Amino acid sequence: EVQLQASGGGTVKPGGSLRLSCVASGFTSGPYDMSWVRQAPGKEPEWVSRISSGGGTTDSADSVKGRFTISRDNAKNTLYLQMNSVKPEDTAVYYCTKGWDGLGPRGQGTLVTVSS
Question: What angle do CA 78, 1, 55 make, to 5 degrees?
Fold first, then answer.
């Protein structure tokens, strides 16, 4: 059974930083391309960032480009999202998913609240 467990969320002030982690387990092979997706209250899910299986290629949504950085440690089966210069509109539950398109099954998310 594939499990994706995100952590590292919390409350942060505008302009602050936060680092999210996602531990993946249960994959029968891999590594795989991975993505971060977020969902704000009352809104549709939004793709945030993605990284290739080897970590050599990354891409981010325009809304977070230059502020968020995706990375991974395949030896630890862990995906990261470094969030800098956060804004109130970054408030959401953040999930990691398998795949380049961010449409794969989501595991347990982690809540990020940006508030002064």
Answer: 25
In angstroms, the CA 37 to CA 47 distance is 4
How many CA within 13 A on the CB side of residue 59?
A: 11
The tens digit of pLDDT for each residue in 35-93 reads 999 999 999 999 999 999 999 999 999 999 999 999 999 999 999 999 999 999 999 99
Q: What are phi and psi of 89, to 5 degrees?
A: -70, -5
- 100 Cβ neighbours under 8 A, 6+ residues apart: 33, 35, 50, 52
- Cα separation, 47 vs 60, in Å, equals 8
84 exposure class (CB count in 10 Å sphere: 0-12, 13-18, 19+): middle
